[in-house]
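Entry 14. Ran structure prediction on the chain below.
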Amino acid sequence: MAGSKSNAFAANVLDLMTGFSTAPLIGPSATGGMWIHLYATTLNSAATPATTGRCPGTGYTPVLVASSSNQWNAPTTADPAVTSNTSAISFTTNAAADWGTIKAVAISSSSGTGGLNYWYGDLTANQTISSGNTVKFSTAALVITET
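Output, structure tokens:
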């Protein structure tokens, strides 16, 4: 799954590198991790955690994943550097209604519309989520690439 940093997060990286900010960029937030969001639209570098395009299904909620070595593989030192999830990331089972077609995923600082998207990417293949389906990223299936 190809992806990239959001414009807002890229600017935060530059702020830290050039001394305009000393605040940590990511890591355990007040919630202890990062939020995984599903989107019914493709995303671009200007995307925010807004509800526009987010999975429209009844009962959908993003998933909190801890920012820890228990949840993510150590990043490689290759070019590009990559990391992936160490265990399955499962969303609440869709029992109420169809969620439609999911096209993208984003990792965000917030479960709501505030904060920023750290990383986003289109799914390798769109996924149609019907009532009763469980949505999950298997171990090592959510791959974050840093170039």
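Residues 3-20+28-146 form one domain. Will compare against last week's run tomorrow.
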